[in-house]
Recover the amino acids of this structure.
């Protein structure tokens, strides 16, 4: 079976530096948020320092999901077999779901009381989106991309489905995994942080974007800049108009902070324009970037799941160590339902300590990922390595 329906002739696909570099960069940013969680500093905040500490991490989930869609397209093109690609997406996706409910849940909380608290987090969402993408790859990439854009910009339609179908009770609770319907954000005993819509749309859009990266560098660059800058312009224009039509309260933050404070749960179209636009526009430049910082990002970007599985327990242990030094006790109850922590205000860290712990943990993660990347490279025959 020709993977591209005759549109392209099969040829080897080299690994794209831009994807590894940008994915690695957002992974480094991603580590800020778990440190913030264990520090007790709430998301957002009235000061610019606290606001942007949270805001810069907004690029992480959109980038991860979008690049996963691109990666699925490129892997499918490489193996030229949609059945194998679908099987890979389903098995890897279900592995991610299992990891979210077991190992990752334990690393966040360091307790085995699974009956008390379960979280549908970003890895859960990423896994199920891969499973759903396996059903979409049978269409042409451009069709998958269009479906993805429809889901992103038409996501509010999913809010009306339970009422339209007359769903009640447990049936309506199941819908909470798809798109928010009730007010408490819970679905059958699980805390739902990431619903599947619009994220499956983001992954599908990434899959549809994949063929652009196989074009000649000049056309690739022009399209990436045009798409990325257009998304940024739409975000600024539409977001500004919406805010200017509103009457802010007397204690409202400055206009810029209100513009950047877009809804992430679920991710609104403006949130995705704000975050994906810059990432897409930067792709041509990331492909040519050089230097030690680029090499560090590329290293992280080549072992994303290993990094993710390691960074949460490492940061958790760092937080317990800092708490013991500052308080004389580790207070495990503060973190029993992390990433939803309950740290008394007087015991929260300052931004200086937060960033010190963050930098030290990233250094440790660098050496761990460097070892694992070398191990992965020198053991190509171990098939399980392609899943982690």
């Amino acid at each position: 079976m020709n993977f591209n329906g005759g549109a392209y002739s099969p040829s080897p696909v080299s690994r794209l530096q831009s994807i590894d570099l940008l994915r690695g960069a957002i992974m480094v940013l991603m580590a800020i948020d778990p440190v913030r969680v264990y520090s007790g500093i709430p998301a957002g905040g009235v000061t610019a320092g606290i606001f942007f500490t949270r805001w810069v991490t907004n690029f992480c989930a959109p980038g991860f999901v979008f690049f996963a869609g691109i990666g699925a397209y490129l892997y499918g093109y490489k193996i030229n077999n949609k059945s194998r690609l679908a099987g890979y997406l389903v098995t890897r996706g279900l592995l991610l779901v299992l990891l979210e409910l077991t190992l990752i849940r334990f690393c966040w909380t360091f307790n085995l009381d699974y009956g008390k608290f379960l979280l549908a987090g970003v890895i859960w969402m990423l896994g199920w989106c891969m499973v759903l993408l396996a059903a979409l790859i049978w269409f042409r990439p451009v069709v998958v991309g269009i479906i993805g854009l429809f889901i992103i910009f038409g996501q509010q339609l999913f809010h009306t489905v339970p009422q339209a179908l007359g769903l009640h009770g447990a049936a309506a609770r199941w819908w909470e995994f798809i798109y928010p319907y009730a007010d408490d954000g819970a679905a059958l005993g699980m805390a739902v942080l990431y619903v599947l819509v619009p994220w499956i749309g983001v992954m599908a859009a990434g899959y549809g974007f994949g063929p652009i990266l196989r074009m000649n560098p000049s056309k690739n660059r022009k399209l990436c800049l045009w798409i990325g800058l257009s998304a940024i312009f739409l975000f600024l224009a539409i977001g500004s108009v919406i805010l200017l039509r509103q009457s802010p309260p007397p204690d409202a933050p400055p206009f810029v902070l209100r513009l950047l404070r877009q809804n992430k749960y679920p991710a609104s179209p403006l949130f995705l324009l704000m975050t994906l636009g810059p990432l897409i526009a930067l792709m041509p430049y990331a492909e040519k970037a050089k230097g030690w910082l680029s090499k560090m990002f590329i290293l992280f970007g080549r072992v994303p799941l290993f990094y993710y599985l390691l960074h949460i327990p490492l940061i958790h242990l760092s937080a317990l160590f800092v708490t013991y030094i500052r308080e004389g006790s580790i207070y495990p109850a503060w973190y029993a339902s992390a990433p939803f922590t309950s740290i008394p205000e007087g015991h929260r860290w300052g931004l200086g300590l937060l960033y010190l712990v963050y930098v030290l943990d990233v250094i440790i993660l660098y050496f761990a990922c460097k070892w694992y990347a070398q191990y992965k490279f020198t053991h190509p025959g171990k098939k399980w390595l392609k899943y982690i």
About this structure: Residues 17-154+198-387 form one domain. The longest strand covers residues 190-192.
